[in-house]
Design brief:
It contains no helices and 11 strands. With 148 residues, the protein is an all-beta fold.
Amino acid sequence: MKKIILFAVLPLFFMFACDEDDEVTTVDSSRPQGTFSVSRSGDFVEQNGTGTQGMAAVGTDEDGNSFIRFNDSFQTNLATGTVAIFLSTSDTFMADPANGNPNLKLVGNVSMNGESYYPLSETVDSKYTHIILWCASANIPFGYAPLQ
């Protein structure tokens, strides 16, 4: 691939062409690099008629980065609003903002049905035994996956 650099100095234009470049590699930090090694996983249990199903897993990639993975059969009802993903110490959403929510850790929001990865800033603490899907706009749980 040749790089072409275009400079405009009114009213003149200058164009330079460079030699062939080495292949460019793009790293997507939202996806694991290399092999994804699962440390714990579990199947989703549907709640409140939301159609939640599939499997969730926590693990690391070859670079030691931690992720939550929803498998390709994952699905939930995304038409009701934002569905948040939480790590939890139980299968029940127990918000306690006055104490910093010690039993919950927000991961992010479900972006789509099917396989997806959610990067984590650190390795998942063993105290978190479940992944909970929570819809704040409806104030209901959509499902949970026990991590074993």
